[in-house]
Amino acid sequence: MAETALTNTATSITRPEGWRGIAADWSSDQRAFKNVSWGKAMMWIFLLSDTFIFSCFLLSYMTARMSTTVPWPNPSEVFALTIGDKKIPLILIAIMTFILISSSGTMAMAVNFGYRRDRAKTAALMLATAAFGATFVGMQAFEWTKLIMEGVRPWGNPWGAPQFGSCFFMITGFHGTHVTIGVIFLIAIARKVWRGDFDVERRGFFTSRKGYYEIVEITGLYWHFVDLVWVFIFAFFYLW
Amino acid sequence: MTNVAVHVEGQQPSLHIHVHEALASGATHTKGQQHPIKLYLVVWGWLFVLSTCSYLVDFFGIHGYLRPSLILLFMVLKAGLIVAVFMHMAWERLALAYAILLPPVLVLVFVAIMVFESDYTHLLRVIFFAPTA
User: To probe the interface with B, which of A43, A60, A67 has the most B CB atoms within 10 Å?
Assistant: First the structure.
């Protein structure tokens, strides 16, 4: 029974397009997402709920920053690094952004090679993505260390509004946790791809069900989401 | 309940055969999101360009209304590219796209509420908790 929903069974069914299609899909007395497997649909719904979590964090940050009478620390100066003799604003965050975008690029290509059943390239690209992700987390650890050494705490900091620290640790910490989980997820799936689990339809040790190359795309959805959240954090917390 | 379960169980063998036929022909897998690699590389390039642009907003210290406008513009463009191309939302059925993309837009209502709320808190703080010299 579980296997039936895994495949794109409904692609052959012709259904209306546009708004009529939405109404037809949702009122069809069966599953609403016609040509989407349950795995992909569930990942999307999980990501939607995660969107709300990050929205709440960013909203509470907005509320704290808008309602404080104490000046907010200037992120451009707080996150500046001195390289050589020059003080470059926000340079570490910029590098982290580029690293995360690169990891999204390699992930997108891994999905593509996965559907072409190119085992070696898929696994290699997924491991490259994981490596980028691990680098990102490493740089974040460096950033945290630097700020803690400079006296930033969840209840105060040397430059201004005390809420700066709690917002920073909460938002970047939660995002970093997501990246870390993503790296573990990527390595686990890359191992399965490399071993050829999806070619021989080997059953998973936990679910005892067959896996398909679609799991690469589902892993990719999670990973791109982590990148997506960073786009918003970068804009609202670091640049604003 | 049990009747339903039995009914579904009874259908299982025929569905299995269907799935295996589909797998054997490779139909299910060649249909799953095939796009040229070049597309991903182009989007990757654009994401780099847009990130550089948003970094330059800070680097050149642009201020006033231009700053938030530019930041939001680059943010929305980047998010759109990631969701549409990397996450393949552009090729999904509208029933899924609307179910996933519409609810986050409603967060903007929450944003509006909290903007009023924080303005009000700020006002109270200025009136009653201003440091007295």
Answer: A67
